[in-house]
Amino acid sequence: MTADLPGPEAPRCAWSRAAPEFPAYHDTEWGFPVDDDRRLFEKLCLEGFQSGLSWRTILVKRENFRTAFAGFDIPSIARFTEHDVERLLQDPGIVRHRGKIEAVVNNARRAEELLDEEGSLARFVWRYEPAPEELPKPQTVSVSPASISLSKDLKRRGWRFVGPTTAFAFMQAMGLINDHSAECAIRPVVQRRREAFTPPAG
């Protein structure tokens, strides 16, 4: 993953210098295309937890979230009960917000329905990859027509904490768009990965 990365002296997106946890995340994860259902589900959940908070708050707790939520395994979380919700509300390693915790459990159940219908979460999500001519200048917007459409479709299916801004941040992170700044040395790395990536059919 790191063999083709430019050196640390090369320019990066300005936000990547805002916290010590950000450079590695920026250089090896953010914007790289993902088609793994577990990772996609995890990111949707974590973006929901970020609502009203900073991404750093979530990123530093990410491993705790993974432990608390069974590695974001969809069938496992779908079987969580009220007892599990109460247990998680006592877990100091995560964000203890009842609505967001309950949303993850609900969304796992909705994800199972979507998997039955579509075959994979990736196949559904990647339908919302915008065409090149629809892309705004990098890092100039926090919502887009595609993120609004994705949000509406998820909400229609009963998902929670998946507003247009959350959906846009998810699309940025999971590589549905390359939103690295024009001068960022990682932008062409991500672009090469995107060009080599084949979105799931459907």
UniProtKB/TrEMBL annotation:
Keywords, alphabetical: Glycosidase, Hydrolase
Signal peptide: none
EC number: 3.2.2.20
GO molecular function, one term: DNA-3-methyladenine glycosylase activity
Keyword Hydrolase (UniProt): yes
Class of enzymatic activity (EC top level): hydrolase
Name of the molecule in the record: DNA-3-methyladenine glycosylase I
InterPro entries, per database record: Adenine_glyco (IPR005019), DNA-3mA_glycosylase (IPR052891), DNA_glycosylase (IPR011257)
Keyword Transit peptide: no
